[in-house]
Every structure is written in C-alpha cells, then in structure tokens.
Specification:
CATH topology of the largest domain: Glutaredoxin
Number of helices: 5
Domain Thioredoxin: 102-189
Region (Disordered): 29-73
Order of helices and strands: HEHEHEHEEH
Structural class: alpha/beta
Radius of gyration: 47 Å
Oligomer: single chain
Low-confidence stretches: 1-14, 219-229
Protein name: Thioredoxin domain-containing protein
Largest sheet: 5 strands, mixed
Biased composition (Basic and acidic residues): 51-63
Pfam families: Thioredoxin
Helix content: 55-70%
Strand order of the largest sheet: 1-3-2-4-5
Shape: rod-shaped
Length: 229
C-alpha cells in the first residue's frame, strides 16, 4: 500500500514551524524596536519638559528681577519726593510760613514777591476791627501753612499805603506770585458784621487761590464757589 503524502506533510510542517519561528523572531524584534523607540521618545519628552521648566523658571526669575528693579526705582523716586517736600517745608518754615508775622515796609516787596501765596493785613493798632481781623488771621496762619500771612502797620508804611491806595481799614490784600489778585476791604465781604468766622474769611482766600489747601472743617470736599457761611 502506498501511502501518499506522508513525507510531504512532514516537510510542510517543518517548513511551517520554521516560518513561524522566523515570524515570531521578527515580531519579537519589531516589538523590542518599538519599545526602544517609545522609551527614547519618553526620555526626550521628559527632557523637553525639564528644559521647558528650566526655561520657564529662568523667565520667571528674569520677571522677578525686572519687577524688583521697578519697585526699587519707584521707592527711590518716592524717597526723593519726600526729601524734596521736607526741604520745601523747612525753607517755608524759615521764611515764616505757619506764623502770622509783622513786617517792616522795607521788607514788604521782597516778602510778597518771594512767596507763592501771601496775605497781607494793612492795619492800625487803635482800630477795633483791625484787632478782630488780627485774631482770625492768626488762626488761619496756623491752619494753612502753605500760605504766608503777614501784617504791616499803616503808620509805618506810607509808601505802600499810597501805592496800593489803602483807604479803609482793615484792608487785607491777597497776593499770588507777587501780584495782588484781590483785596478784602473792611467787613463788607464778610457780611458787614464783627461776628464772622475764620472759615468765612478762609473761603474768600480759597476762592482766589491764595489758600489752596483743603478748608478746615470741610469734610465734604467743597471748594471754590461754596455759599455756606
């Protein structure tokens, strides 16, 4: 009996096994290659993230440095402003700001031209209303220390009394940059009574920019044009 095909089947099976082994090896190699490639990509990704983090950190550090530098400049500028303001205050104090002072005729022109804002009361010692005005101006000089308050005895200042045509007492002349911008003659502008308040007087000065500070007692922030007494 002839058995057909048994030898061929064995050969075929061997070939199949060999082919399978080759395929498995190829698949295994391919899987290893893919694993290696994935690991490399993963390492590259981690490195990229680290580099980005380092870059971000560097940018943050640079931003912090810039912010610190700007704060330092602002701080230095503020210090210089405070020093300048202190120097101005010292100079004004030496010039008599914050006080109500008597001056002689020969000092009048120099005083009103050197002061940014100046109030001068032309008075007579024997006039009762001049004494009332004196009391109010003494109060205002302390309240508004960015304005110079002075007084001059008319009996000792004939030249400027004539030059400024002072005919009624008291007369208070308001100066800005050495220029007379307004005058308060007698008490007419203050209601014509002796019982006006220091604030009423201050409001007139504020209106003409001889007082530029906030009015004492004016919590509402009202300024020029107020009609409150």
């Amino acid at each position: 009996m002839h058995l057909k095909g048994s030898g061929n089947e064995t050969s075929d099976r061997l070939r199949d096994l060999a082919t399978s082994a080759v395929l498995e090896k190829a698949i295994e190699d391919r899987l290893k290659k893919e694993e290696n490639r994935g690991a490399a990509q993963s390492d590259a990704g981690v490195g990229g993230v680290k580099r980005q983090a380092d870059s971000d950190e560097g940018a943050t550090d640079h931003g912090d440095d810039a912010e610190d530098s700007e704060l330092s400049r602002l701080r230095e500028r503020r210090i210089q402003q405070i020093k300048a303001a202190a120097a101005d205050r010292k100079k004004e104090s030496e010039m008599g700001y914050g006080e109500y002072t008597m001056i002689d005729e020969e000092d009048f022109l120099n005083t009103v031209t050197k002061c940014k804002r100046c109030v001068c009361h032309f008075f007579h010692r024997e006039f009762e209303r001049c004494k009332i005005m004196d009391r109010h101006l003494s109060v205002l000089a302390q309240q508004y220390d960015r304005t110079r308050f002075i007084k001059m005895d008319v009996t000792k200042a004939p030249f400027f009394v004539a030059k400024l045509a002072i005919r009624t007492l008291p007369t208070v002349v308001l100066f800005v940059d050495g220029v007379a911008v307004h005058r308060i003659v007698g008490f007419e502008e203050l209601g014509g009574v002796d019982t006006f308040s220091s604030r009423q007087l201050a409001k007139i000065m504020h209106k003409h920019q001889v007082i530029t500070q906030k009015l004492v007692g004016d919590e509402s922030g009202r300024s020029n044009g107020d009609d409150e007494n």
